Amino acid sequence: MNRLFSDTISFGRQYLRTKVGPFFSFVFPILLILLFGALFSDQGGGGKIPLPVQNLDGGPYSAALMDMLNQTGYFQISVVEDEGDIADYVNENSLTLALSIPSNFSSNVESSTPVSVVLCGDTTRSTFPTVQGVLDAVINQMNYNISGASQIVSFEVQYAGSEQYGAYDFLLPGFVGLTVMVSAMYFMTSTCAEHRSRGYFKLLATTTLKKSEWLSSKFLFNSAMLVSSLLVTFAVAMAAFDLKAVLTPLSIALVVAGTFMFTSLGMLLGSAVKDPESAVAVSNFIGFPMMFLSGSFWDLSASPEYLQWISKAMPLTYLNEGLRDTMVYANEASAFVNLMIVLVIGAVCFVLASRLMSWKER
Fold first, then answer.
1. pLDDT at 43
2. For residues 334 and 123, what is the distance between their CA atoms, to the nearest angstrom?
3. Which of 253, 275, 335, 362 could tie 326 with a disulfide, CB 3.0–4.6 Å?
4. Where are the alpha helices (DSSP H) in the chain?
5. Per-residue confidence (pLDDT) for residue 45, from 0 to 100
């Protein structure tokens, strides 16, 4: 019995001395609780769902509808000045959804003629069913106020894009972005830690190879691997699902730019770690929040405002948005802006990593 307890205590001490063990036992569950609690808890005040409204009517009944929507407290309503097709507006601005009130709305209501508003957007986003439910309740209340029973006002759903996309079409860009982050950042951070612990950096210091050249070689390798991964992933998705998302040249450029950004970030993190165990802990500490707060799996537009600001500070957000813009919404202009943001973040990380990384013992 004494031997059993002695070995248990000895193993416990070794376990607690590692960086990985305590991280997954204590830090990881706390991160999950805080992240998912912040995303799905109503405490602390959830964020309102952005709802752009195109009011082509301008009459008293359309104003009453907008006022009723605003009074629900669910929506952050903005006015769409564009009078063109609402689906085009949603696609051009990569919106989750928008509401269009037709020009004959008030006149039809006054004459008791049935009229419909159009809810257009990405039906696979987590916020869309919520908006549908609230809009349905508001319209039912409006019908009751107008006629007492007859359904004069209704709404119809219009899908974003020229054809109906499935859930996987919107998830695929997030999966690709997440793969780029995990493969490039985790790999690079661990590589730096392993090179340092095994003394490889001391050997490299005796050569003419520059740190920027060493980092560039890792970027080239990761780029080739991840572009190949994108092509294989896309081919499998097309074979297994009725995929409508499109593989574009800009999506490949975003994957390369994302690889550059996360390879550089991985080396920057690797400059601060001394052993592989520390590398795993640091990578997880940085990577896990990005997995859940960068729009890889679900829409964050209805999350608390502070989480949306945190999301905007995460590099993976811009990679995901850029991939979704070009692969799903065909919004090349917005995708190009996100591409530039990814490149700028990558360039900053590259310069800092090249300067801060030391090949000497510390």
1. 42
2. 21
3. 335
4. 2-17, 20-22, 28-40, 60-71, 86-92, 105-110, 127-147, 167-181, 187-197, 200-204, 211-240, 249-270, 276-293, 305-312, 315-324, 332-356
5. 46
Nearest to 283 by CA among 29, 20, 36: 20
Tracing tokens 């009723």 back to the chain, one arrives at 68
- pTM as predicted: 0.69
Predicted pLDDT at 31: 60
- pLDDT for the residue numbered 154: 87
Boundaries of every domain in the chain: 49-159, 167-356
Which 8-state DSSP code applies to residue 53? Answer: E
> CA 56, CA 138: separation in Å to the nearest integer?
19
Beta strand 115-121 with 97-101: parallel, antiparallel or unpaired? antiparallel
Do strands 75-79 and 115-121 pair parallel, antiparallel, or not at all (unpaired)?
Answer: unpaired
Strand partners, 269: none
Separation of CA 242 from chain center: 23
Cβ neighbors of 88 (< 8 A, separation 6 or more) are none
Handedness of CA 284, 290, 292, 297 (dihedral sign): negative
Residue appearing with tokens 């439910």: 133
Q: Which CATH architecture has domain 49-159?
A: 3-Layer(aba) Sandwich (3.40)
If DSSP codes are grouped into helix, strand and coil, which group holds residue 303? Answer: coil
At 145, list the tokens: 């106020």
pLDDT at 162: 47
Q: What is the pLDDT of residue 315?
A: 93
* 102: amino acid identity, one letter: P
Q: Which residues of the chain have pLDDT under 50?
A: 42-45, 162
Structure tokens at 32: 């999950």
Task: Give the start-end residues of each E strand in 65-208.
Answer: 75-79, 97-101, 115-121, 153-159
Establish how many alpha carbons lie within 13 A of residue 285's alpha carbon, considering only the half-sphere containing its beta carbon: 15
